[in-house]
Amino acid sequence: MAKYPDIKTAGLRVNKLRKEIARLRELYHTADSPDVTDVVYDSLNRELRDIIREYPNLDDPNAPEYRVGGKPLPKFEKVKHTVRMLSLNDVFSIDELYDWEKRIKKLLPANTKIEYFCEIKFDGLAGTLIYEKGKLMLGATRGDGFVGEDVTQNLKTIHSIPLQLKGNIPEFIEVRGEVVMSKKTLINLNKIQELEGKILFANTRNATAGSIRQLDPKLASSRNLEFFAYDVKQYKNKNYIPDTHSKEHEVLRDIGFVVDKNEKICKNLEEVINFIKSFEKIRSNFLYGTDGIVISINELKLQEVLGVVGKAPRYMAAYKYPAERATTIVKDVKVNVGRTGVLTPLALFEPTLVAGSTVSKATLHNMDQIERLDLRIGDTVVIEKAGDVIPKVVEVLTRMRTGKEKKFKMPDSCPACLGDIDKKLISEKKENSVAYYCINKKCVAKNERYIEHFVSVFDIYELGPKVLRRFKDEGLITDAADIFSLDKSDIATLERFGEKSAENIVEEIKNKKRISLSRFLWALGILHVGEETARDLAQHFGTLEKIIENSKENINEIDSIPNIGPAVTKSVLQFFQDKNNLHFIEKLKENGVVIDKVEKIKGGKFEGLTFVLTGTLSTMSREIAKEKIIKLGGKISGSVSKNTSYVVTGEDAGSKLKSAEKLKIKILTEEEFKKMI
Ligand code: IVH
Predict the structure, then answer these.
(1) Ligand 1 pocket, 461 CB below 6 A?
(2) How far is the CA of 368 from the centre of ligand 1 (A)?
(3) What is the pLDDT, as a whole number, of residue 376?
(4) Measured between alpha carbons, how far is 563 from 512 in angstroms, rounded to an integer?
(5) CATH number given to 516-596
(6) Residue nearest to atom 15 of ligand 1 (CA)
(7) Quick one: which of 509, 526, 637 has its CA closest to 578?
(8) Using CA atoms, how far apart are residues 445 and 567, in angstroms rounded to an integer?
(9) What is the enclosing helix (H) or strand (E) of 149?
(10) Residue 126 CA: which ligand 1 atom is closest?
C-alpha cells in the first residue's frame, strides 16, 4: 500500500477512492456487472480500508462504502413494532377540515389554545428506523401497523438514511418517514422496464413498494430511492425532550435526516388553509408524488390527550387534494379482458397531459358507467387522474357535440377468444348494474391477465407481460403454478435469454415463493376479493386451511366479518368449493409456494378489568378516558359493585366514590390513572 506523509494527502486519496467506488457500484447496478469491475472494486475497497485503519479520523460511517446491502435474503423477517404504526383520517374539503377542528375542540378542556403544524403527505411507503447510540440497528415496513417486515438491508442503500447519526445524539430513537421515488426516477425506471418486457409501475408508490419489498439489496440500491423523515418515537435523550411536533422535525434535521422544507406552524385553521392552497400551486411541479397535506396538533401533550380511534390518531388529519383534470376527445372505445374474464371498456384518445404525465387511455369501468355518462365515440370528455397512471372519464361535455358522435355497444362475444359472454350483477346494492364476463375457461386473454396479476402480487418483477407471453408460447407455462417450477435450463435455451437473465429470473422466483396469507388470497384472483378484502379474510381466519374448511362445510362464517357482504361470501365459497381451484392451490404448494399464517394480536393490559369513572377529569374528557380503557382491553361500568376493579375519581366525585370506599374498591386519582394508561 502506498504511504501518505500526512492526513491531508491521505484524505485526498480517500476522496478519490470513495468517488470511484461509488461510480463502479452504480455501474454494477445498472449495467449487469462486467467481471473486471468486481476485481477492481474489491481492490479499491481494500486500499480504502487500509488507509482508514492508519488514519481513523478519515472514517465516515455514512460514506458510500458502508451502504452495501449484502447478499439477497431468503425471506424477510417479521418485526413487531414497539409503537404501533397508524394511518391517517382523510378530509376531502375545507368544510371537513372545520368539522375535524370542531370535533377536537369538544374533546379538549374549554379555551385550550391550539397550534397546528402542516407538512407534505408523501405518496410512498412508510418506513421506521431504530437507532441505538446513534447507530442504525433496524429498518422495517409498516405491514399491518402491528407487525412489519425487516427491510434493513434495502433501507441501508438509501443515501438519505443516515447509518450513523450526528449532532446531539439520543440514547435511543425511532424515526418514522416515507420512502419515496422521484417522479423523474419512475419515468426512467418504466422506460427500462418496458425495454426489458417487465411490469410497468402504475405510480411512484407502487414502484417504491416494489423496490423495498424485494429480497436483493442490489436491486433496491439501483432504484434511487429517497427517505423523508417526518416523525419521532421513543426518543431518549437526557439533555433535551421536544414538546411539539415542529421541534421533533428540528431534532430530525439536527441528527442528520432529510425533512422536507415545506412545513409550517399555523396559529389557526385559516393559516392551515393558506398553506394548503399555496402548496397546491406548486404540487404538479414538485419532484415527488404527494397526495395531500398532513395537519397535526403541534403540542405533543394535547396529542396524547386526544389519542387514537381505530387505526388513526384524532390529533392528525390528511387533507387530500382533488384529483387533477384535463379535457380530451374520445377516438375510440376498446374492450379489455381482465383476469376474472370481466370486459372493461377503455376510452382511447390523443396523448393528453394531465397531472404531470401524458395519458392516452382511461377506464370507463362498465357499460353502466358509459350510459350514466352518456359517452359516445367522438365526444369531448373530462378526464381525472389521482395518483395512478390510468385515469378515468368523469364527465362528457355534451355541448361540444357535432352530431357525428357514435354510441358504443358491448360486443356479443369475447374480443379475445370469441367465447360466450354472460352478464352478472355488479353488487347487490345496485340492482340494474351489470358487468359482462367472458365465460370461456380457456380464454387466452383472461388466462394471460390472471398470470400477470399473480406474478405482480408475488412481486416477481422479472416477469412482465412480454416475458410471460413468450413462456406461454414456448410451452414453458400453462398456468401460474408452472412459474414456480421453471428451470434455468428451460429459459436459457430460448432465443434472446442468456444464462445470466435465466439465472436472474429463476433466482427471483425462488426468493418470492414465500407469501403472506392476505397477499396469497389476493393473488388467487377470486371474484370481488381485492387487496383489502383479502386482508380482512386473512385476519379473520388466520390460515388458508381454515378458509377451505369453512367453505367445505358451507358455514357462513365469512358473512359475519365486518366489511364483507353476501356477494363476496358467495364468490369465496364458490371458489374454494371448486375442485380445479383446490388442485391449483395444491400444485402451487408442491412447487414450493409457502403461505405464512397470520399472527394474532394478544389482548391489552386492562384485559379482565372493569373501571368506573366519577367526577370531572381536568386533563381529558370522560369520553377519551373511556376510549383509552377500552383500547387497553378494559371494560367500563356505570355503577360500582364488587366486580369493579378501579374507580377513577375527578373533581366533585359523588356517591360512586362513597360506594367504592364502602366496598373497598381501589380508588385512582386522575394522575394515577394517567400513569396506568
Ligand atoms: S404522519 C399517524 N406524515 O401517510 C400515522 N404520514 O395515510 C401517519 N405519510 O402511513 C404518520 N407523508 O406512510 C405522516 N408527512 C407525513 C407523511 C405521512 C406520508 C404516509 C404514511 C402513513 C400514511 C397514512
Answers:
(1) no
(2) 36
(3) 97
(4) 30
(5) 1.10.150.20
(6) 121
(7) 526
(8) 25
(9) strand 147-149
(10) 13
Q: 597 with 520: CB under 8 angstroms?
A: no
pLDDT of residue 430: 57
Domain 444-512 class in CATH: mainly alpha
Cβ(231) – ligand 1 distance below 6 Å: yes
Residue 86, ligand 1, Cβ within 6 A: yes
Extents of the domains making up the chain: 7-59, 90-320, 324-407, 444-512, 516-596, 610-676
Beta strands in 16-143 (DSSP E): 78-80, 90-91, 116-122, 125-132, 135-141
Residue 11: the pLDDT is 93
Residue-level pLDDT at 498: 82
| Sequence-ordered list of residues with C-beta below 8 angstroms from that of 486, at least 6 positions apart, any chain | 471, 476, 477, 505, 506, 509
Residues 6+ apart with CB under 8 A from 363: 344, 345, 346, 347, 390, 391, 392, 393
The model carries a pTM of 0.71
Q: Is the CB of 504 under 6 A from ligand 1?
A: no
The dihedral over CA atoms of 634, 640, 643, 645, expressed in degrees to the nearest 10, equals 50
Instruction: Please indicate whether the domains covering 444-512 and 516-596 agree at the CATH topology level.
Output: yes
Could you say which of 80, 105, 121, 441 is catalytic?
A: 121
Pick the CATH number of 610-676 from 3.30.70.1490, 3.40.50.10190, 3.30.565.10, 3.20.20.370: 3.40.50.10190
For residues 108 and 302, the answer to whether their CB atoms sit within 8 Å is yes
Q: What's the topology of domain 7-59? A: Helix Hairpins (1.10.287)
Ligand 1 centroid from CA 308, angstroms: 14
CA of 345 to the centre of ligand 1 (A): 35
230-252 pLDDT tens trace:
999 999 988 888 999 999 999 99
- Residue 121 among the catalytic residues: yes
The list of the chain residues with pLDDT below 70 reads 1-2, 26, 28-37, 68-72, 356, 386-389, 426-432, 554-556, 562, 599-603, 631
Report how far ligand 1's centroid is from the alpha carbon of 550 (Å).
37
CATH pick for 324-407 out of 3.40.50.12780, 3.90.180.10, 2.40.50.140, 3.30.565.10: 2.40.50.140
Encoded amino acid at 333, one letter: V
User: What letters, b where the CB count within 10 A reaches 16 and e where it falls short, cover 342-366?
Assistant: bbbbbbebeebebbebebebbbbbb
* Predicted pLDDT at 182: 94
Indicate which atom in ligand 1 lies nearest the CA of residue 120.
15
Counting ligand 1 atoms within 8 A of each CB, the residue from 83, 84, 86, 121 with the most, and so the one to mutate, is 121
CATH number at 90-320: 3.30.470.30
Q: Write down the pLDDT at residue 599.
A: 62
Question: Any residues with CB less than 8 A from the CB of 31 and at least 6 apart, and which?
Answer: none
Where are the strands (E) in 221-323, listed by range?
226-236, 263-266, 290-297, 308-309, 312-313, 316-320
> If we measure between CA atoms, which residue out of 455, 436, 441 comes closest to residue 336?
436
For cell 392476505, the residue is 518
